[in-house]
Amino acid sequence: SARASFAGRWSAKEAVFKSLGVESRGAGAALKDIEITNDSKGAPVVTLHGDAKAAASKVGVKSVDVSISHSDSQAVAVAVARF
């Protein structure tokens, strides 16, 4: 469902933010600065913009991989930052 897909992407953005290892002072980076798209095979791809990109660069993050799973009632995501 569209709702479950949205929840999965939201979970992915939260996981990406946490993987950056930056201190959260309300918001280390706006979730709008974390973009989750799909590659040609359907796998999720993370693109950082604005404050999220600056925060990742500051702590030495080179890239972030993410995995998303959801059902109609639950969503989960795991992000791994590569330094």
Written overview of the protein:
With 83 residues, the protein is an alpha+beta fold. Helices cover 34% and strands 31% of the residues. It contains two helices and four strands; from the N terminus they run αββαββ. A two-stranded antiparallel sheet has the order 1-2. Strands 3-4 form a two-stranded antiparallel ribbon. The protein is globular and about 35 Å long. The protein starts with a helix and ends with a strand.
Give a quick rundown of the structure:
34% of the residues lie in helices and 31% in strands. It is built from two helices and four strands; from the N terminus they run αββαββ. It is globular and about 35 Å long.
Name the descriptors.
2 helices; two-stranded antiparallel sheet; alpha+beta; 83 residues; single chain
Biggest sheet record:
2 strands, antiparallel
Distance between the termini: 35 Å
Strand order of the largest sheet: 1-2
Taken in chain order, the helices and strands follow as: HEEHEE
The coarse silhouette is globular
Give the number of helices. 2
Count of β-strands: 4
Alpha carbon gyration radius: 12 Å
Average pLDDT level: 90
Based on helices, strands and strand pairing, what is the structural class? alpha+beta
Q: What share of the residues lie within helices?
A: 25-40%
